[in-house]
Amino acid sequence: MINHVLDSMNEVITNNYDANHKAIDIVASDNSEPNIIALKGGTVKTVVNNIKGTNHKSKGLDTYGNYVKIKQTDGNTALYAHMKHGSITVKEGEYVEKGETIGTIGETGNAYGKHLHLEIQNKNNIKENPLISLNENSNDSNKLINVQKTEEKTTSNSSDSTLNNNHTNPTTNNLSINQVSHNYKSNEFLSAKKYTHGSIVDALKSINMDSSYNYRKKLAKANGIENYHGSYSQNVKMLKLLKQGNLKKV
Question: 11-139 maps to which CATH number?
Answer without folding.
Answer: 2.70.70.10
